[in-house]
Amino acid sequence: MTDADQLRSSYLAFFEKRGHATVPSASLVPENDPTTLFTGSGMQPMVPFLLGQSHPKGKRICNSQKSFRSQDVEEVGDNRHTTFFEMLGNWSLGDYFKHEQLAWFFEFLTKDVKLDPARLYVSVFAGNDGLGIPRDQESADIWQQLFKAAGIKAEATDYQPKLGLGQARIFFYDEKKNWWSRSGEPTKMPAGEPGGPDSEVFYDFGAQLQLHEQSEFKDQLCHPNCDCGRFLEIGNSVFMQYLKQADGSFKELPQKNVDFGGGLERILAAKNNDQDVFSTDLFQPIITELEQLSGKRYKETEFIGSFRVIADHLRAAVMLAADGVFPSNKEQGYFSRRLVRRAIRHSHKLGIKKQLLKHLVPIITKMYEKPYPEVSEQVSKITDALVKEEEKFIKTLYKALHEFDKFLSHKFGKVGGAKQAFVTPADAFRFYESWGWPIEIFIEEATSKGVSLVSVDDFRSEFESEKAKHAEKSRTASIGKFKGGLQDASEQTIKYHTATHLLQAALRKVLGEHVQQKGSNITQDRLRFDFSHSHSISVDEQNQIMALIQNWIAADLPVSRQTMSKQAALESGAIAFFIEKYPDQVSVYTIGNNPESAWISKELCGGPHVSRTAEIGQLQWLKEQPVAAGIRRIYLK
User: Fold this and answer.
1) Residue scoring higher pLDDT (159 or 25)
2) Can you say how many angstroms the Cα of residue 302 is from the centroid of all Cα atoms in its chain?
């Protein structure tokens, strides 16, 4: 069995030999990208360079990018979907194009990874006359020549549902399958978004998978993009050459780019000729420990899906924590909490009653010791935070399950005897609010009891609406008519409000840039500031923080305000941790002698501020305490 470290290294070495500079993985939390909570592909950090900005490393770049896709949470349980994954990537920023890219990837797969070329199938873009985007015959022709050189005849055809696979090896699909942008197909892209046709490569695990008598797809026609499990997409070369215009049309970018992404886990599964990505060494150490804890065998139990959910969710939670995301009810932390709690529920389905996280977190961090040493260096901090989340959830889990059974009994009587039983998103939100159940747990428990949901997609959407309405009511109640968490507009609260900017700047300087504001509350008597951090602040750190604040106050620095677009504000270096609440035009408050360069703090903010820091006066540290997993609270006066 090939291991992941070996495959990752060989990929990067392959492209380094072809003039590519290897760059480190970006954080799972995007920087200066308010459009998304997580880095979901290697392309995201590359957008400025795809649009024409010069990359400091040149025109040929490669890396292995840590990625997280929250929309895949419910898909986990089959043999191929994961929330966290690594995307092997290479980019041409206005340099080489289709001929080099397709030939190199084919060579890497067949020569370095040693995949049988007869097991490879590909797709290309069929074109869209209405959008003025041509059929990608060029890529199809390149693929035919590559297969021919490998001794394989490769027929090309437009995919037709009534024909299935046929004799073809190269398939033309429309923009729903063979177009890539961050927003999906062309009609869904906003103006200013780059995108382009793509060419995917699939590995064929063999017809027996689809034809097996137990397969739900055994009587259906197969093709590379179907769901039967026979084919696995292992890489996608995107030819990023178009920019969406305000009128809905597409204009070619000044430079033609290549944006390639290949799933490390999936290429590894193909190399091992085992369609189950959870059989690779990226999951097996976790699954082996789960077998020890549960007394059950991974592939010899009806709970195989539970093994996969636990292994995926906890691996993702650990990698998120290494990038500063810990369980909470807000923003990225909300997804971390969902992962941990769903994993714990599935561990109980496996019969694991003892603590899970203290066993698994060290195993996961050890797995990434070589490629991402910063993960294993934080093992204690990550373990402590996730174990606290586990303890909190377990305290209420059995009581919540009992209450759920009572709820169903009260609402439907004996559910099995009901002709048609439905639960509502409001019901799901009640269990979220009362018992901390992520929506996935509610849906799974309901369906396991034979209860129907009108539509899972609609159900989820309405649940999120209920959650958003509740959050807005809570925010309105706490903020009142004043901005920025102020309880009134007195002179003292305005001083404290400005002081929170200095406090946040000092925290980020002393503790690290993982610190993010999670809330504030200011009265005439004190300021309260919540922020992301996993452990208590030492006396030495406290002294450093207060010294910075007092020095900045004594320097009598100017506090200036500018009005600009939200995007321009973020590009200028301003920070904002509740970006969705701000309008398109925002106020940016800068503390420092030179607002353009020598500034101490630059934040999007809506509340009133003093004009100079000396007006704040002396501040005193009152106390610091935890308020949630990975969230601390400071009081100053």
Assistant:
1) 25
2) 29
Long-range contacts of 573-578 (CB under 8 A, 24+ apart): 573/602, 574/602, 574/603, 574/604, 575/602, 575/603, 575/604, 576/34, 576/603, 576/604, 577/331, 577/516, 577/517, 577/518, 578/517
- Listing DSSP states for 9-21 in one string gives HHHHHHHHTTTPE
Q: At 195, is the secondary structure helix, strand, or coil?
A: strand
Q: Is 485 left (phi over 0), alpha (psi -120 to 50) or beta?
A: left
**pLDDT score of 302:** 84
Which residue type sits at 189?
M
Treating both helix axes as pointing N-terminal to C-terminal, what angle do 439-448 and 456-479 enclose, rounded to 10 degrees?
A: 140
What's the angle, vertex CA 88, arms to CA 85 and CA 91, rounded to 5? 135
Name the band, by pLDDT with cuts 50, 70 and 90, for residue 327: very high
Cα-flanking dihedrals φ and ψ of residue 615, to 5°? -65, -20
Higher pLDDT, 418 or 579: 579
| Widest pairwise Cα distance in the chain | 81
Contact 477, 502 (CB under 8 A): no
Within 10 A of 74 (CB to CB), how many other CB atoms are there?
15
pLDDT in tens, 221-242: 788 888 778 899 999 999 999 9
* pLDDT one-digit tens code per residue, 535-585: 889 888 998 999 999 999 998 899 888 888 878 888 788 887 656 556 677
Q: pTM for this one?
A: 0.71
Nearest to 542 by CA among 601, 637, 624: 624
With a CB cutoff of 8 Å and minimum separation 6, the contacts of 562 are: 587, 588, 590, 595
Q: Provide the token pair at 257.
A: 């780019």
What is the CATH superfamily name and number for domain 491-636?
A: Threonyl-trna Synthetase; Chain A, domain 2 (3.30.980.10)
Spatial contact of 315 and 336, defined as CB atoms under 8 Å apart? no
CATH code, residues 4-279 = 3.30.930.10
What confidence score (pLDDT) does residue 596 get? 62
Separation CA 387–CA 393 (nearest Å): 10
SS3 203: strand
For residue 232, list its beta bridge partners.
203
Strands 120-125 and 168-173 come out as: parallel
